[in-house]
Amino acid sequence: MDGTYLQIGEVAARTELSLRTIRHYEETGLVVPSARSRGGFRLYTETDVERLMVVRRMKPLGFSLEQMRDLLDATDRLDACPAPAGAEREALLARVRHYERAAAEQIDALRIGLLRAEDFARTLRSRLGRDTARS
Fold it and tell me: CATH number of the domain that 3 lies in?
């Protein structure tokens, strides 16, 4: 990080999150701006943007705000200087692995849902094709 700060509009554009959503995540404590400008504008670092991207990726997989907070806490602690060691490190890694497995399960469920939706759309197209041929 080179000390460059981004304003909330720039962060919104990069993360494809609305200003309202970013403010909501701030209110819930998931991502807090690293600084404020003299005029009181929220200023974000690349690390803040990375945190928002984690949240953005977790949301469509159905993770709750509490789960997002838990994962961010685990990764923050793993990234801390000095990094935890021994049993604490293993416990944090186990938490991250738990979320990785849960994400993989959600991906599998979404794939099944997508296949079913595609099959349904094909069925409807086939039906429409039969009716069009009759007219």
Answer: 1.10.1660.10
